[in-house]
Amino acid sequence: MLKVSNLHAYYDNVHALKGIDLEVRAGEIVSLIGSNGAGKSTTLLAIAGLLSPSEGKVTFDGEDITKLPAHGLVKKGLSLTLEGREVFEALTVEENLMLGAYTKQDKKAIAASFERVYGLFPRLKERVKQQAGTLSGGEQQMLAMGRALMSEPKLLLLDEPSLGLAPNLVEQMFDLIVDINKQGTTVLLIEQNANMALAISDRAYVMETGKVALSGNAKELMDDSRVKKAYLGHP
Amino acid sequence: MFIQQLVNGLALGMVYALIAVGFSLVFGILRLVNFSHAAIFAFGAHVALFFIGLEVGPIPAILISMVLTGGVGILIDKVALAPLRKKKSIPIAGLITTIGVSYILQNILTIVFGSGRVHFPAIIPPGGFDFLGTRITSMQILMFGVSLTLMLLLTYLVNHTKMGLAMRAMQQNPKAARLMGINVNSVIMFTFFLAGATASIAGGLISGFYQMAYPAMGVSFGPKVFSATVLGGIGSMPGAFVGGILIGVIEVMAAMFLGSAYRDGAAFVVLILVLILRPQGLFGRKLALKV
């Protein structure tokens, strides 16, 4: 579904991505793990067209989207949440979600998306008229994910959805990602919380200093001694 | 006499508010202080004057000017401002550019119309009515009514349409707005069109009221409108509305109670006081400048 080959990019004059290759197949949950500064978020920005890659190619459903401007992605079926949520703080929860469906015309389909998102995140339904900036961190993360789902994407890219959440919420967030995936949305997950990410993923890529250091089946990576030592916090 | 001045101030202030709204919209979307906005206002007045010269009638002339001036707004952005955004220039570069653009526009007007004051015909036949000893002219009613109607339309557009939602999204978080599938360039074009079009209508109204136009009229009215915007809270539509009216009323009151020499200065005294006491303006949110 998504194929990234030999992706290079510079971020603030730093050669942040040095030839990334990765693939996400339909129906999968794939995670991209690695320590802070490994280039995970930069990879996502380059895929999204918010940062132009200096070299390499990104294809989505067989179509070259490397040069596609960021606003063109949603229509192709690719939607993402950014690190730090980036909700529209002065707009209401409902308006935020409406913006998620900005490219949609069909009112019935939009109403169905609202139902789906409220089903996944009942908390958002209780807060429809509330300004997004007044929500708690966890609620803002739910809003960011709900907003990304409003376009009914084929592929959802999530950047650090567990960042800054209380431990019990983190677990809930990962359960929700599994639910979303079960509803038929393919997920590419970028996470520092490697334990949780690997537990729900089919496959994973481990990034180190702008390169993919390891990749493979998520369960196998969990047992890999290098991964255990560097990212899972136990020998 | 007080009521009479209040009426005069309200009519004038409502037009200031209309100009301020366009200025504020552009600022909201781009965080750009568009100093060329007042020159666009003068430009709009002269385009209307030009078409009045072709004897299409004052109101059709103003409507033609509205479309053309809106187009000029887009053109200015495409030629002078969009390239700066693309290069991620420092914010001051955009500001200085708009100052430059305002001189270029003023020069173009001087070349075509001469630098002096030219007669601008009455838009509607003279008339009006007396109400409890206060004279309200039909031109004042027109200024007030047209400006108010346009402001209400703009408010509706921003708060209740899809384009308006996109504008508000961009105002808050351009990066996230792009990820929603919002074509940022279309929103910017649309906003510049709206700003140019409303400024041009205001230009026609002000020129029709004073029955004259001159290339430097942007320089005379610009500072008042910028003050009105900042007074109300830059980026806020209700702020532009209240700011415009306040500046209009303060101006005529100062002229009446203190003498006409104080006319242009009084509004700025109020502005400075407001900025000291409430820096974000009357209706402004404390917004971090993301530039």
Question: What report would you give on this structure?
Answer:
The complex is a heterodimer of chains A (235) and B (291). In chain A, 38% of the residues lie in helices and 27% in strands. By secondary structure, chain A is of the alpha/beta class. Chain A has 2 domains: 137 residues, 3-Layer(aba) Sandwich (Rossmann fold); 75 residues, no CATH class. In chain A, strands 6-7-8-3-9-10 form a 6-stranded mixed β-sheet, with helices on both faces. A 4-stranded antiparallel β-sheet of chain A has the order 2-1-4-5, covered by helices on one side. In chain A, helix 3 runs parallel beside helix 6. The longest helix of chain A has 16 residues. The radius of gyration of chain A is 17 Å and the shape is globular. The mean pLDDT of chain A is 92. Chain B is mainly alpha-helical. Chain B has a domain of 202 residues. Chain B has 11 helices and 4 strands, in the order ααααβββααααβααα. In chain B, the strands form 2 sheets. A two-stranded antiparallel sheet of chain B has the order 1-4. Chain B has a two-stranded antiparallel ribbon with strand order 2-3. In chain B, helix 1 crosses helix 9. Chain B is globular. The model of chain B has no long low-confidence stretch (mean pLDDT 92). The interface between A and B is medium-sized, with 26 and 18 residues.
